[in-house]
Every structure is written in structure tokens, then in C-alpha cells.
Request: fold
Amino acid sequence: MSNSLLDTLTTAELACPVITTDHQDYDRYRKVWNGIADRRPLAIVRPQTVEEVQKAVRAAASSGVLLAVRGGGHSIPGLSTCDDGLVVDMSLLHSVAIENDTQTVGVGGGALLGDLDRATVPKGYVVPAGVISHTGVAGLTLGGGMGWASRKYGLTIDSLLGAEIVTASGDVVWASSTWNPELFWGIRGGGGNFGIVTRFKFQLHPIGGIVVGQWTYPMENARQVLSALRDLTRKQSHDFTVSFTASQAGVNVTTVWSGDAGLAKAALSPFGTLADGASGGLEKLPYLTLQSRNDVALAWSRRYYAKGGFWSDISDNAIKHIIEAIAHVPAPDCEIYAIQLGGAISDIPDDATAYTGRDAGYYWLSEPIWDDMADDDRCIEWGRTTGRLLSDASIAGNYVNEQSDTGSSVAREAYGPTKYQRLARLKARLDPANLFRLNQNIKPQA
Ligand SMILES: Cc1cc2nc3c(=O)[nH]c(=O)nc-3n(C[C@H](O)[C@H](O)[C@H](O)COP(=O)(O)OP(=O)(O)OC[C@H]3O[C@@H](n4cnc5c(N)ncnc54)[C@H](O)[C@@H]3O)c2cc1C
Reply:
């Protein structure tokens, strides 16, 4: 450990675990979700209180080392870890507390989506969030947060009522529509640029059982499947969401219905006859089951790359690129995924939050998945090339949470010039030295 960081952390008298390179479990604690991000921080601080988060932030600032902030560890580019710096691992601050009177929930900055769903769903409530239960609430929320309940209730940020944040100066502030409203605007899509969130407060929404239709079609029918899916999806209610995954295994179409169960069959079953060769069917599921049933497919420690974007619709050109890309995958689990957006997401004006892309009909992702380090270059190249081709058919704006490539152009392109300048001014006010720079970074500019 660098002496100055060691000295500073020692002087700070942290009561929480501090994992250094000589700790017997160092390798376990330094691990993050993406196996590619094999980094060796100087120390990992695991705060149990807000005061310990403040001390860790001040220690990083005064010793001048790189600072990484980790919620659920699912940053695809591995931005929640670093070489030779300090990681603030928030995972011990994972409590979830429901306020029944106000139908709100307080969620610690290190909670996972599974922690949140397991606390709220059995009580009949949901916060719309992502589709894999081991993802972190913090990183997902700060970028926007989309999943099965988003067309019905909006992005995760659309249910955010406020957040407690430790800023670069080590101060604690509350951000909501009435307290620090500009910061509240910025954290709803601006990622981890503005500080460490120790607690979120979300509005809860009612959720019951859901009906899921899932079918797999042979890849040779992909053109017919995807164009029929596009046509069927154009006029769907907010209770309906579709996603698809194209891979060597075929085109997997998943539809979710969260409205009146009596209407589910009529809404979903047409997606089982998009082309010949479908296997699958309809089932009633508890919402919790839906939220965790793909956890294994996107397991920890495999190797991942992602490049995504927004489509207004699924164009013929996009379908052509999908078919060509899947014909040339470098590893069997490489895939192209898309989830339908719109609905309640688009009911909110684009300038209401930093998140940019509310007019989109779909979010798509070119996502190579592999295990052997020797395949890194060709899998990443496939992901990048496929992403570039699919970007041709995309609209402006982007989702900062699912981009492996980093660099100043990513955030600029995602937010567009007007929002980027507004975010850069906020960054200059709150983090002029860019302490929080391991993210899709917004450069401070007054
Ligand atoms: C398997 C998988 C499934 C996914 N599914 C979805 C999905 O369905 N919908 C969706 O919208 N996105 C999805 N994503 C993308 C996801 O939103 C991002 O990867 C997100 O960053 C994960 O959050 P995390 O806390 O786990 O990440 P981490 O790696 O812990 O953190 C990512 C970044 O978030 C910031 N951050 C983390 N914690 C805090 C905190 N407490 N305070 C301030 N900043 C913090 C930091 O800048 C950090 O670099 C998925 C990602 C994966 C890997």
C-alpha cells in the first residue's frame, strides 16, 4: 500500500473492514462481476456507516490516489475497481426499509436488486429496476434503470424521491426535488459522477403475479420473427413488455404481462406464432421468480463486453445486421439483446432528468460473452463491430450504464451537448478535481 494512503486511512481510525493486499481474502474482495476487470487496488474499504464513507472519501482526496466506488460490482467496463487506488465497497450498507404509511422504501447504497425485490415484492410492491437480481441498485439507478416494470412505472430514477450523498468534499447532502434540485436532476442519469450515494428513497408501486410468454425460434427464421415482433409490438399497452435475444441458439422472445390476468393470453400468445419452429409457451409466475431466473446466464466471473444504443423501432437494416453478426459469432454465448422501452418512460419529458433517450422504442445491446482470456481480442472486436453496425440504425442519446468503451466521447454522445454542459457545470461545483472519475466521466467545466 502507498504510504500516504495507508497513513491517511490509519489516521482516519476507520472501524469498518479495510482490506489491503496482504489480507488473506484480498482476492475475494477485489473481484468484480466482469472477469476481464482483474484489477489490484491498494485497499478496499467496506464502510458500515455514513461517517466511514466520509472518511474514506477524504482519505482518497488527500492522498491523491484513484478512487473507485462499488455498489453491486456490475460495471461492465469494471469501473468499480482500479489498480493501485482505493475502492469504497458499499456492499455492507445494503439495508432495505419499507415505510408502509408513505409507500416508500429506503435502500442502502450497497444493496442488490434482489435485496430490494425480496423486501418489497412479497408485500405487493415494486420499484421498477433491472432484470438480473445480482445487479447493484446504486449503479443501475444512477444511470437510469430499465427492466420489466419500466413500461408500466418508468425507469428506476422515475421512482426516486431522494438520495443521501457524500460529495467529493466529504460532506453529506440530501438531493430531492426540493433540496439540491440540480443535483437531484444530475443523479437521475448522470451516473456516479457527483458523489457516493449512501441511501436512496424510492416510491413503491403495486405489483401482483405476472404472466410470461417465452418462445425460441430457429435462427434461420430470424428475419420473419423480428419483423413480425416489430409489427405486433407497435400498439401495446403499458402492461406489456417484450425483449429478445439473438444468439447461435436461436431467437429467444420473452413477453411479460403485468395487467389484468384475463387479458394476458390475448396479448402474449401471438408472439408464439411469429414464424415456424417456435418452442415455448405461457406461464404464470411470481414477479420474484421472473427477476432472478436469468441470473445464471449472466453469472459472475465470465468475460463480457457490451455496446448498446437506442432504436426508435426495429428497422430492416438492424435485422439484417443481427442475422449477419450471429452468423459470425466468435464464441457460442455471444448475443444481441433488446428490450422494449416507451410506455411510462416516454411519458416524462426528456429534459426532466439527465438520462437521455426517453423517445426510444427499444434499447439494444451487442454483448459477447466468453470464458477464455485467449478469446478477448476477437470477442471484443465482434462486440464493437456489431455495435457499430447496430448504431447506424440508432437514434440520439444513449444509456451510460451498459457501455464497455470509456473515454470522453461516451458521455458527450450519451447526453448530447446541452445536457452535457449542464452536467459539467454541476460537476465543476461539486467535484472540481474530478475525484469521482471512474465512471462514464463528465469533465468539470464551470
Ligand atoms: C448482469 C447485468 C445485468 C444488467 N441488467 C440491467 C438491467 O436489466 N437494466 C439496467 O438498466 N441495467 C442493467 N445492467 C447495467 C447496470 O445498470 C450497470 O452495470 C450498473 O452500473 C450496475 O450497478 P452496480 O452497483 O452493480 O455496479 P458497480 O460496478 O458497483 O458500480 C458501477 C458504477 O456506479 C457507480 N456507483 C456504484 N455504487 C455507487 C454508490 N453507492 N454511489 C455512487 N455511485 C455508485 C460508480 O460510478 C461505479 O463505477 C446490467 C448489468 C449487468 C452486469
In short: The first strand starts at residue 18 and ends at 20. The CA atoms of residues 18 and 45 lie 5 Å apart. The mean pLDDT is 97.
